[in-house]
Amino acid sequence: MSLNRINSQLIEPSVLSGSKGWILKNTDYTSQPYENLSIDTSSNIVNITLPNNPPDDSRISIRDYNDTFDINKLVIKRQSGVKIMNINEDMEVSTKGICFTLIYKANSNDWRIQIIYSL
Prior knowledge:
The chain is built from no helices and ten strands. It has 119 residues and is an all-beta fold.
């Protein structure tokens, strides 16, 4: 699944998950609920694996740290049996400068994209 196929509203990137600061990642990483991740793909593709068995309404915010998702994509990897936007596929993000939040819905075992900001 490609993030380009999803319609969402534009919102300032400061309105994201929780009050935690941003964590910079430039290598593969397994995220935790309520993290804000700045992803640097300037040198390589980065895989972010979503947490296993997160609480309902868990949020993970992600932003393109160096505006390079169009050069080296970000891959959001699912845990087994979990969907992203009701699709049983990992999500590839290749939109330069994008910032978005994923919210987990336990009743449907699905991560939903709620907020998107793009340059």
